[in-house]
Design brief:
The protein is of the alpha/beta class. It has eight helices and ten strands. α3 crosses α4.
């Protein structure tokens, strides 16, 4: 049997759903292919919007028993890290209006329109978490699968992809019907259900109407299979 991969979509501070998904995956893997080592790939956006961003980070830092674990960087992790470097009002405003306000509230920092303290933010998140976030990769390739947060720039070789595109790109990638040479597994663009195309699979469903966390199972003979928790 080929290698098995479980890729999990955007979590956005929902540590409760991530715990449910990890448990669901453990049961699924034991039932379907417990004799094969499996890899969990988290495609980024662990923070913001939800109530427990630090809980999500801590859970991922602990790892998942019985699985190899890969955690990728999303645009929300990138935004928070940039805000830790400077007090620029515009930089902070972009982050806060994209859900960073929930992260500030969850770690006990005030949400206000000026006077943001980047040093206080970094101290509140904690140096161990900050270093973990800084070291997150922006892509992971495994055979014919390429795991990224947002997508890739069509027509550009994998080794020449830019981090900015890997964590931010939308329509140029989403609208492309080009054969990328790999099946791209990504999140970033939410919908009610997973999106399956010949060249990509999107697993971001947390902000859709049904608000569920989705994972895709890869490597089975029957093709991609999906799991979800609410």
């Amino acid at each position: 049997m080929s290698d098995i991969y479980y890729a999990i979509g955007d979590v956005h501070g929902r540590d409760d759903l991530l715990a449910k998904m990890h448990a669901r995956i453990a049961e699924d893997h034991a039932f379907h292919h417990g004799d094969v080592r499996a890899t969990l790939v988290h495609v980024g956006d662990y923070i913001d919007r939800g109530p427990n961003s630090m809980g999500v980070i801590d859970r991922l830092m602990r790892g998942v028993p019985g699985f190899d674990v890969v955690c990728l960087k999303g645009n929300h992790e990138h935004m928070m890290l940039v805000c830790m470097e400077k007090e620029d009002l515009q930089t902070w405003r972009v982050w806060l209006t994209n859900g960073g306000d929930a992260t500030l509230e969850s770690i006990g920092l005030p949400v206000r329109l000026k006077g943001y303290d980047h040093e206080r933010l970094r101290a509140s998140v904690g140096e161990e978490r900050v270093k973990w976030l800084q070291l997150l990769p922006t892509m992971h390739q495994a055979g014919d699968y390429l795991f990224v947060h947002a997508g890739i720039f069509p027509g550009r070789p994998i080794e020449e992809q830019r981090d900015e595109d890997l964590i931010w790109i939308r329509h140029r990638f989403l609208d492309s019907q080009e054969d990328h040479g790999v099946l791209v597994i990504h999140g970033h663009t939410p919908g009610d259900e997973p999106v399956v195309r010949p060249n990509r699979i999107c697993i971001d469903t947390l902000l859709g109407a049904y608000r569920k966390l989705t994972a895709v199972v890869l490597g089975e003979e029957g093709g991609p299979r999906f799991l979800s928790v609410k």
